[in-house]
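Supplementary Methods, section 5.1.

A reviewer requested that the exact input to the structure prediction be made available. We therefore reproduce it here, unchanged from the version used in the analyses.
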Amino acid sequence: MRLRIAGLTVAYGGEPVLHRVSLQVAPGEALGLVGESGSGKSTLARAVLGLLPPTAQATGEIAVDGAHRVAERRQKTGFVFQDPMTRLNPLKTIADHGLEVLRVLRPHLGRGQRQAKLRSALLAAQLEPSRANQYPHEFSGGMRQRAAIALALLLDPGLLIADEPTTSLDATVAAEVLQVLGQLRRERDMGLLLVSHDLGLVARHTDRLAVLKEGAIVEQGPTPQVFAQPRHPYTRQLVAITRREPKAIAPAQNLLVAQNLSQQYWTGPPWQRRSLRALDNVSLTVGTGERFGIVGESGSGKSTLLRVLARALNPDQGEVWLDGQNLTALRGEALRRSRRRYQLIFQDPRASLPPHLTVRQTLADGLVAHGVSRAQAAADVDFGLTKVGLAGLGERWPRELSGGQLQRVAIARALLLRPQLLLCDEPVSMLDVTIQRQILDLLLALQTEFNLTYVFVTHDLAIARWFCPRVAVLYRGQIVESGPSDRVLTQPEHPYTATLLRSVGLCEEP
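The structure derived from this sequence is encoded token-by-token as follows.
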């Protein structure tokens, strides 16, 4: 066995986080480990490498290719983290990272041998070796993840642990990264432990599945069998979440109209500047009470379009109209007043909430900035927190809240000014599947109560199909296809849409 775990129990301060967990990964096999936040997935992965904090008490057996000692397990295990940008030193090139690993852990290798091994690992991860002398910030998200895979391969591990390796990537890039991992495990006979909250991803890229709940394995078996005939109530709940459909709301008159939006950026030094067209003559309409989705890969222009719609960026060409008012013509105080009618929900609430302010202070300051009195702001904050299920948590600091709670705070902040339109930028991509669905259910309930309209940007096509009755597909700054999601995301007319759907298994290969 590449990985054998038997009776693993991990506790912090006497409080168990893992309860007698047992699982195995055979050579060439991919095991998916799924569960919600706090279930113990990351603790299990860190236990294999002996990366638990000193305060942890661990009992049980862990072996990687027959090695039980931590130092030996580390030599036989590669680890791919969720966000390589936070794990790579921004002051070092990819070559610096790799050669340092080999210099420390394979000291018997000469310089030429180390360079040859790094080149081989980069090629195996389908990354051009000539890029090795570049820094992490010069790579796209997918390329950084490939570089992380290459670094994990340097010691020729028998086991590769991938901890949420595609959470921050769009559908096509995520599919490419997972195809690389699948090809490597087959070619090298490696075991792959794929930790993820994305059930659809696990279904497509693993042979067996283990479901973790509150620190215990509640079900495991062949992936198709677990999905088709889940035995445990929690597994049935996870599978049901992916199949339930929200009710569409028939839109009334147009609320948001974007006409012929174009936007270009200039890159490079002044003596060698070149233009990058982020938006190219984009037009769309969104009806009152509608949930309108915008999908596309990284670099397609999704974020630029949302910034233009929110008037955080002035377009080079075109207009944005909200309920009959031309937002692109507004300046100064008139623009500030208009912002009460539309609000943004960001992808990462931890990054968008000030860490030095309590939840109450953050929400109240936003209201006061729009002319609301302190007394009224306090009452409005209590109302908003109650509506998102966080009553009584106003005095907490952001660091004291979970990811799902932080996103509820972000939603409360967007609601306090009673807007007509919410612009949602990947609002659930950082959350596990159960918390994702809780947040989406909350957005649905709030839409009904407050007659909200959503523009919902996402790279997750399954969520777009589930949540948005109508979608637009953005590719290289242009809308190449739009219409009812039941048609666009099942019977695409444009080749790019078909490519997107094939990358996530929602469309058959031609």
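The domain at 3-241 is CATH 3.40.50.300 (Rossmann fold). These observations are discussed further in the main text.
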